[in-house]
From TrEMBL:
It comes from Chrysemys picta bellii. Residues 140-332 form the B30.2/SPRY domain. The keyword Chaperone does not apply. Pfam families: PRY, SPRY, V-set. This is Butyrophilin subfamily 1 member A1-like. Residues 12-136 form the Ig-like domain.
């Protein structure tokens, strides 16, 4: 029987009876596996078979009950959805009248490797099932921050420098424009339109209108800082609120806690304090990703639609410890790199096992671009080719 009859109260001439729908929710009895940059499908169904068209159906991240995808009142609801899943999820409901639905997650990221809760609710009846998604190839040495794995992608390491014309007058830049710190006194600098006059921040001199760019910043033991990218057209005068809606995609350390700068702030699950942060901009994909270089973990990814010029953003806050832009290794300066994924490595689908061992002289540097890949760089006459090696 699909319904449980509950006698609520009895009157002399009538009864009040509530019919409660009875069902269970079933998910797969094994982890779902997906590749970085690929597609994951998380199925759930009701038993006994019944329509879920008028139910509330959702997927939550089990660890904190954050909304991954929500269906209510016959429509997908995106207002409560986590920012990092926006534009990447789709509820497959062709068989919803039989109580069968699936969640499709596109462009799978390392951070998607978690346990999910699938739930159905009808009135006061609520049931759920747990599902586990395992993302192949992102743990250990192959955690590389290039999570859109295609047959061949072009990556451009960028040698970022600071733009002194944008620096707040209290900020002190090094001669090579690689370091910035907060100073004790306000410098006598022209109040040009490009300069931030209130907030202690500075932009990178380089502007990006496309491509994939990666750079690293040494934050050391700084008690506060902000890093990210912003639109070149952002206002430089007066107080600033960092948010994607205002043209800023940034993360911060503030008050002893790490956040993504969203309204409201999104706490970041940091287990090891980063002394160095990697920023990966994929302009065409509309993504800005942040990585803890210290333990090689993913911190956060913004997903948006970019237009115009984007520039690196730095704020050392109000302390004298400098932010330091890390140099690009000499072997990599001045060119693009073709990243090719091929073959299979045991336990790491999609990573090549037929390639030679990494060349130590190119992978033992401190810069994450090659460290994270642990691949082999084959130098050619014009463009090196980076091949992931197991």
């Amino acid at each position: 029987n699909r319904y449980m009859t509950v006698l609520i109260t009895q009157r002399p001439n009538f009864y009040i009876v509530l019919f409660i729908t009875q069902f269970t929710v079933t998910g797969p009895d094994h982890p779902i596996t997906a590749s970085l940059g690929g597609v994951a499908v998380l199925p759930c169904h009701l038993s006994p078979r019944m329509s879920a068209e008028n139910m509330e159906v959702g997927w939550l991240r089990s660890q904190d009950s954050a909304v991954v995808h929500l269906y209510r009142d016959g429509h997908d609801q995106y207002g409560e959805q986590m920012l990092e899943y926006r534009g990447r999820t789709e509820l497959l409901k062709d068989d919803i009248t039989n109580g069968r639905v699936s969640l499709r997650i596109r462009n799978v990221r390392p951070s998607d490797d978690v346990q999910y809760t699938c739930f159905f609710q009808s009135g006061v009846s609520y049931e759920e099932a747990l599902l586990e998604l395992q993302v192949a190839g992102h743990r250990g040495k192959n955690w590389a921050p290039y999570h859109q794995c295609t047959d061949s992608v072009t990556l451009s390491p960028v040698d970022v420098t600071l733009d002194p014309d944008t620096a707040n007058p209290y900020l002190v830049l090094s001669e090579d424009r690689k370091r910035v710190r907060f100073g004790d006194t306000r410098q006598d600098l022209p109040d040009n339109p490009e300069r931030f006059d209130t907030c202690s921040c500075v932009l990178g001199a380089e502007g990006f209108t496309g491509g994939r760019r990666y750079w690293e910043v040494e934050v050391g033991d700084k008690p506060e800082w902000e890093l990210g990218v912003c639109r070149e057209s952002v206002s430089r005068k007066g107080d600033i609120t960092l948010s994607p809606g205002n043209g800023y995609w940034a993360v911060q350390l503030w008050g002893g806690r790490y956040h993504a700068c969203t309204p409201p702030l999104t706490p970041l699950p940091v287990s090891v304090r980063p002394s160095r942060v990697g920023i990966f901009l994929d302009y065409e994909a509309g993504e800005v990703s942040f990585y803890n270089v210290t333990d090689r973990s993913h911190l956060f990814t913004f997903t948006d639609t970019f237009s115009g010029t984007l520039r690196p953003y730095f704020s050392p806050w109000l302390n004298a410890v400098p932010l330091i832009i890390c140099p690009v290794p000499a072997q990599m300066a001045g060119g693009d790199f073709s990243l090719e994924l091929a073959g299979e490595t045991e336990g790491t689908p999609g990573l090549g096992s037929k390639f030679p061992a990494p060349q130590k002289d190119l992978t033992e540097g401190s810069w994450l671009y090659l460290q994270a890949l642990f691949g082999t760089v084959f130098l050619s006459s014009n463009k090196p080719s980076v091949l992931l090696a197991g």
